[in-house]
Specification:
single chain; alpha+beta; three-stranded antiparallel sheet; globular; Double Stranded RNA Binding Domain; 240 residues
Length: 240
């Protein structure tokens, strides 16, 4: 698949978790640049220290979903935060969810099941974005799933972005329910619904990244966080 929806959320660790979430978003952005992919921000909620509480984006490019699908799960970082004065190592987490971009025909959504509201964007985009209610929030009433988009300059563009995220989330839920009904719920990428497992640890004192699912380790954390994800992506490909 050449399109994916990516969601990053700060987990345990306060400000440091939000900064780590921003580090992960930047890593995926830079990886997309290296691959020549398109990376679009759909919605974001930042903190005062320029971290992310939440981030939602769309990636488009050759085999983008296949390359990024194994990023899903809870990522853990161990380092001395910039705000730490006594030099103690903190452990913080951020969760990543990568979903396939679902085409409109693949998931049928009844318009009467949607509650759509508009609001003024708090993000970048100039005066037009901030003065006019261009941001869109959509709630799918049967499931309670809520999505939003505020980065585009028009209501229609933000609504289209939000609907694409909603379709992917509903598709993921459908897959999870299908797996449950077959008694085959697995801790995997799509349909697992289980995001509590720590899949990867970024250990700064030892300059080591460990992926706990495949038991592989890599050094030079800064290089990988700067978008050099290919060694990790290739390691998963070799696992089949």
């Amino acid at each position: 698949m050449n399109k994916a929806i990516i969601e990053v959320r700060a987990g345990v660790g306060g400000d440091e978790a939000a900064i780590f979430a921003a580090n992960l978003v930047e890593m995926y952005q830079k990886y997309a640049q290296r691959k020549g992919w398109k990376f679009v921000t759909v919605d974001e909620s930042r903190t005062t220290l320029n971290g992310y509480k939440t981030f939602m984006g769309r990636v488009e490019g050759l085999d983008a979903y296949d390359a990024l699908k194994n990023e899903s799960g809870v990522h853990r970082i161990q380092r001395v935060p910039a705000t730490e004065k006594s030099g103690r190592v903190h452990t913080s987490t951020a969760s990543v969810v990568v979903m396939p971009f679902v085409e409109e025909r693949a998931v049928v959504i009844n318009p009467s099941d949607l509650e759509i509201s508009f609001f003024r964007s708090s993000g970048p985009g100039g005066q037009n974005v901030n003065k006019v209610e261009t941001a869109v929030r959509i709630m799918h009433k049967p499931t309670g799933v809520v999505v939003a988009s505020q980065t585009e300059r028009s209501q229609n563009a933000n609504k289209e972005n939000a609907m694409s995220v909603l379709r992917s989330k509903l598709f993921e839920e459908m897959q999870r329910q299908k797996a449950e009904s077959l008694g085959a719920l697995r801790k995997e990428q799509v349909g697992s619904g289980d995001r509590s497992e720590k899949v990867r640890t970024y250990n700064f004192p030892d300059d080591r990244i460990t992926d706990h699912r495949i038991g592989k380790k890599w050094h030079n954390i800064e290089k990988i966080l700067n978008g050099d994800l290919d060694p990790i992506v290739e390691a998963f490909k070799k696992q089949g």
